[in-house]
Structures are given as C-alpha cells and as structure tokens.
Here is the input.
Amino acid sequence: MEHDVWGDLLEPFLDTEFTAEQQAGTLARLSAVGLGPEEVARIREQVGPLMRAFNSLHWDWHHLGITDLLDAAEADWIPEHLRVRPDDRAAFRTWAMEIANRAA
Here is the structure.
C-alpha cells in the first residue's frame, strides 16, 4: 500500500485528537518520504486556514486527503480570502501532486 502523504499532512485538521505517539508515527512516515519537520510545518501552515474552514463544515474525524484539499481550494462556500485564486489553481494542483508523489 502506498503512503498517503496528504493524509498524514492533513491529520491535524481532522476533528479528533492524536496521542503524542500517533503524532510521532505520522512525522516518521513523512520523514521517510523526505518531508522533514520544518517542511511539514510550512505546508501545514500554508494549507491550515483552508482546511480548517473546509472541515468546519464536514467535521471529518477519519481522513482528509488530497481530494479534500483540492475540493477546498475551489469550493465556493469557503471564504474567498482562503480559496486558491483561479489563476493559481493549476500551480496549486501541481504543487500538491508533487508532494503526494513523494511516496512513489
């Protein structure tokens, strides 16, 4: 089974809590695909406001992944200042896929 990089990156935005051991396991999996703690923090900071807005409606407690991220980026019900601008969406999708493909 291939590692779901975005599933791990978006874990803090789920409507649940994770133990320190679970969080360490997530960071270890991300590190194994070349995403160190600083890069993980930057990515989460970048997508955090968008994913918090997205999950404030869905209240997903099990899994958020790249499809959720891409849906949130374009959802018309997300506050406009959080959405990815139409002119930036192709670059955003490319960036997201490059991160997802680190597990390949």
